Each structure stands twice: as structure tokens, then as C-alpha cells.
Amino acid sequence: MSRNPLDGRGRLRVRGFGSHEADDDASAGTATVDADATPSPTTDRWRRAWARFRRDRAAVAGLAVIAVMTLLAVFARPIEVGGVVVQPVALAPYDPSASGIAPAYRPPSLAHPFGTDWAGRDVFSRVLYGGRYSLSIGVIAVGLALLVGVPLGAVAGYAGGWVDETVMRLVDVLYAFPFLVLAIALVAVFGQGFWKLVGALVAVGWISYARLIRGEVLSVSERDYVLAARALGASDGRILRRHVVPNAIAPVIVQATLNVGTVVLSAAALGFLGLGLEPGTAEWGSMLSAGRDTLVGGEWWVTVFPGLAIFLFVLSINLVGDGVRDALDPDADTDRYRTREAR
Amino acid sequence: MALLEVEDLDVRFYTEEGVVQAVDGLSYTLDRGERLGVVGESGAGKTVTALALLDLLDRPGRIEGGSIRFDGEEVLDAPAERLRRLRGGEIGMVFQDPETALNPVYTVGEQVAEAVRVHTDREGAAAHDRAVALLDRVGIPDPATRATQYPHEFSGGMAQRVVVAMALAGDPDLLIADEPTTGLDVTIEAQLLDLLDDLAADDLAVQLVSHDLGVVAGFCDRVLVMYAGQAVERAPVDDLFYHPKHPYTAGLLSAIPRIGDDRDRLATIPGTTPDLASPPPGCRFHPRCPYAEDACTKRDPPLAGVDEVQPTGASVAGDIADDAGDHRAACLAYVDDADFDGALEFAVEVAADATEDDEEADP
Hints:
The structure holds 2 protein chains of 2 kinds. Chain A is mostly helical. Chain A has helices spanning 21-37, 45-54, 57-74, 123-159, 161-175, 179-190, 194-220, 224-231, 236-248, 250-272, 284-290, 294-297, 301-328, and strands at residues 79-81, 84-87.
């Protein structure tokens, strides 16, 4: 019992070393300050992501194709808003819904580059104009699905408890149905039309975003800066909006970009099944559907050109989606992450 | 009245392995402008205590009992709105790892400005100007330019200064610094401590959580030593370092390596911190204590006053006098009616140039 934890301990002083100590400290201090004072060019993460995206040639090509298709769709026919013509250009040589402008089933020629269909309508004009439906359905349906899915999923993940349970069990129930089958059921119940089609696609589309962002929110909520924001007295809504969601949104954006292609494809599939827009509309899927008898007769141009348009758009969207994923993936950027400087 | 009064604080974590008593009956006070050091091993409950002060504990942690009064007002019953004003407005907090405490997607100026907006009427440009002024206050050179940069463009020391600036945005009376210098190298640590020292001179109370006894010796007025969720010793800083009363404190002090030490191995305290889901009976330190007797396994010692003439730091201690003396230790050796026969046979020997030592230990 005579153990002494403090035996043999003493304070030793190194002599002849401390005389310059004050000077050393001061110069070290200013050196550090100088090193920190050189401001490096500041870029935010979206600009960095864009710089990385631009290096991906396939993605840029996809973006270019989409841009061209969008422009062609917009400038295909004049647009009137409330009787005023806001876009006078007409790239499509004929009215896409006008029948009888040429005999039916004319093969491609100079006057009709993509030929004519059973009603004598110009397929080239219809394909150009049809981009309006397909592209806008894709963008609007995905945008609305994000507006529903992201807030619901984020709140579920952040709040937890019964809120989480309610939202996620609803998501599970909807997930139990195959995407297309559920969309078909909804369209069958509510009827046809542009907004009803969009509504059906949103109703089945939001669940994947909700599930994705909930998982991300669960992980981001554990980060120190969220605790720091709480320690600063920020309200829960503010923390969720400003600190959690911006850090959790990247995978959702990737998923949404890729989903635009899926949604366009689904809209086309519904159109092909006769459940999309009204029959006769110049939507790509409906055109395929209307022309499916012609495959036997050998009039290939009626179906090949709208099919190619769908193929090209979905392929481009997928290339862009892959590019966005690579651009937003933090692992692709490890060399830019600063390791702690040892000074 | 003290600025912060913690009484009988009791925090438990409900885990699958059982109920973990992370903080058990902790009491202490902190005056305006005072600097309190909280030291202890990992898992002693230091950080949990700091988080409990702002009611920031998340499931599975729960504050089960006790009282935390800030400026005489109970924190634990406070409505959510009051609690949010308290957080950051009256109590600021600095976290251990500055690089994870900053949000990577906003510029640092924006983050400090956000803290300003939460706690003041300033909006827009005024909040931004205030943020730049705060960055200047914490010693960030060229604050206007640095404010437009992102956290990844800051070094660890500079990022920690930003975190301090955020904590100061609401002009708090108390700053809780949870191991603010861990992970920073010693020169940066010294600069940061200088900054805290400078801030504390403006009547800002600081609760410094640390396991670095050297930092505590240089910075704090009083020290609270925690072990396994309990306070084992509470003393003015000089008394604690020159006259440790609890065997655990003595063990911690003896484990510090020193320049010129002729020991081959560093002294250690044998064993590890107990599993707090099933703490040992009696004194929680007894399995590791070289002086433990039978009585120690049966009775949990209270934090008792130690009768000793205060040789140094008495004037400092006088201002913050507790009714039962300001040097207290939780060991049966200081309990009169305890069945404790032995004696705590450790002592601190101060090397020859004592004046030098006094300067060093004097904050």
C-alpha cells in the first residue's frame, strides 16, 4: 500500500532554447496567416459539377441531342398563347393533324422525308411535333413527382416516428405494384388526356424519390453540422431546408434525370397500349400504336421514325444521367478533398 | 447567483445492452466570466454533459433527472421557443471536429450570417457585414474574401475559428467548447487557446471540455474531473494540479509524459473505464484504485470537502466560494464516518525552480 503514482516525476526545463521562443512564435504566427490569406478561386459545387460534366463527351453529346430535339419540338409549329402568336416559326412542313395532304402510305421522298401514314398525314411533321408531348410529359411528370416525393421523404426521414412509418408504409404499398401496371390502372380509372396521364405517372413516380431521399436524410441528419445548427438555435424546418436536404439531394437529382427517360418510355408504352393521349394525337407512342398493322404490310417508315425518336431521346437522357451521376459523385473527386495540412 | 447551476444531473442511454448511466448525479456551478475545465477519460460523460446543457441529446439518450439552471432559469422545462433562443443566443457551442461541424454546401460567410440571422434582427447585407466582423474578431485574415469561400478551402485551425465565430454570433454569455483543439497541431492549438483566452477576457464564461490536462492547466480557473459519469474531484486549478485529492486525479497527472523523463514506460492507471450499463458497486473507481479497501466496494462516496489549507490560488477561490469549500473529492478517505483505514499516499513533488512552475500554472 505504499505505491506512489507520482514517484519520480518532476519538471525539467530545457535551457538555452527558450530565448528565441517569443520571436519564433510570432514569425510562425504570421507565416500561417500569410499562407491562409492567399485566397484561392472559389467555385460552388454546381459549377464544379458542371466543369466535370463538360469533360464527359458522351453526356455532352446526349445533352446536345436533347437540346436539338427540344428546339425542334418548340419550333415545329407556331405557338399561340391566348390568340397571340408567341413563336411564329414552323419547321414542320405540314400541319401534323391534317390528313389527306398526300396519298396514304407514301414511302419517304423529298416532299415527305419520313413518308405518310394511313390517313395521308406527313410523318416527319408528326414526329417533330410529337416531341412536344413526349418531352413535356417527361419533364413535367418527373418535376411534379420530385415536388411530392422529396418533401414527403425528407420530412419522414428527419421527423422519424409515426410520420416516417405512415409515409414509408404508403411507399411500400405503392411499391408492391409494378410501375406500369399501376399507371395503367390509374389511367383506366381516371380516363385519358394529357394531365391525367401526367397525374398517373406522378402518382407512381414519387415513391422512388421519397425512399431515396429518406435514406440520405437519415445519414445526413447524423452529421455534426446538423448538430451544430441545432446548437445555434435554428428551427427544425430551417435545418431540414437549409442543411439536410441540400446535402441529401444529389442522388435524387441523378435518379430524376435517368427517370425522365423511363417516364417518356412509360408514356409511350401507355400510348402504344391505347391508354395515353387521345387516339390520333401525334405522340410518339400513339403513332407506334396506330402504325402497328403496317409492320405486316411493309410500310416500315410509319413506325420506324417515331420509334427512332423515342430511342434517341431515351438514350440521350441516359447518357446525360450517367454524366450527372459522375459529376455529382463525391468519390470521383477525392483528389480535391483537402487532407488536413500538417504545419 | 451563478450563471450556470447544474444539480444532480442524471442522463441515461437506453440501449440494447441495457440502460447506460452516462451522467450520474452531477452537480457543478459556473460563474460569469469563469473558465471551467471538464476533464476525464473517453466515455466519462464530458460530451454528454455538454450536450445536456442545451438539451441536445438525441434518442436513445434521455435526461432522467436533475436540474440545469442558466441565469436562474430552468433549462429542462423550457418551451421549445425559449430553448432555441438559449441555444446559440445565450450558450454557444464549439465542436470537436471543425471540418464536420461546417456544412460543405455553403460558404463560411453564409453559415456565420445564418447564425446571425437566427439570433439578431439583422437581415441580408447587415447580417453578412456582421458575419465578416465576427470572422475578423476570431482572427481570420482578409475576412471579406474568406467569407466567400467554402469550408473545404479552410485549414483545420481556420475552420475551428469559423466555428467559434458561429458560436459567438448570438453574443452568448457561456461558450461550451467540446475538445476544441483535438486534432489540431500544437501551434494551431496555442493560437486557438489564445483566441479563447482573449474572448473570455470579455466576461464570457467558458466550459472547456478536454482530456488534455496541459490545456486545462493553462486556461481554466477551476477544474471538474469526471470518471464514469460522476464528478470525482472539483477544485481550483492550482489546487488540483499541486494537491490532487482523488486517486484518479493523481493517476491522470502521473500519466502525463514530461520532457527529460527518465521513465522507460509511462505510468498508466490499470484497467479500463467500467461498462456503464453495469457499473461496479460502491465507488466506481475502486477496481482500478491502488488504495481500494473493502469499504470502497460497498459505499459510493459523496463529493466531500477536503480539509486543507489552500496554499495557492486562494484569492481566486475566495470569489467563487462554495458553501462547503471549493476543493471537493469523491473518495471515502475524506468521509468521516467511513470505514476507511488506509491513507492516500501520493504527493506532488515540484521541481526546483518553483517560480517558473507557478507562472506556468497561473492562467
